[in-house]
């Protein structure tokens, strides 16, 4: 029953999202910060001579998370006091995957949606790349699922609506994310304590002009048809919404072996 409910909820919500996108309700940025990510005239990532340029503008604080080639740290812009997240990428560890970061920056510059993490600015030195992004303090959805154990149907339907809204926005711009999973969904809690989701990590995202059948993404969330190359990436994301919805509605430990 839970699996059937997950599929029905996902399909119904995607249909609703196609009819009306959610209105933005995020804090306003300064004109310069808001314009920076969509300015196509400047270099894709702004080159700077040293990290001093970044540190003069941002106070980098505690580590929020880390990965194979990057560390994410909380930061505060010195002139405004606004809080952000700084993704600090070690270029030595990045070798061979530079295209993923360039692609992430290019795609995120095009996106302005309340359920997609905002890219504010980016800098590159000889050793590191700094991506300054919206700070989402609630952690990722995977951790939230493990802590809550199970969400109710009302909570799950709200989450599916957030994801569907973000995907409809991307698909209407011929962008596919290709790695939709709880770890790439960040939990945002508003001042009135309302929880919403924001989609992040666009390393595998791409703009498409024709049907593609690429085998990519996290194996646990890849549609079987993708492995046999019989379904498009856009269709895979509907499959990923369904599997995610099943996770929200099911006790966490039922999936742990």
From TrEMBL:
Residues 1-41 are annotated as: Disordered. Coiled coil: none annotated. GO terms for molecular function: ATP binding; protein serine/threonine kinase activity. Gene3D superfamilies: Phosphorylase Kinase, domain 1, Transferase(Phosphotransferase) domain 1. InterPro entries: Kinase-like_dom_sf (IPR011009), Prot_kinase_dom (IPR000719), Protein_kinase_ATP_BS (IPR017441), Ser/Thr_kinase_AS (IPR008271). It is an enzyme of class 2 (transferase). This is non-specific serine/threonine protein kinase. Belongs to the protein kinase superfamily. Residues 58-257 form the Protein kinase domain.
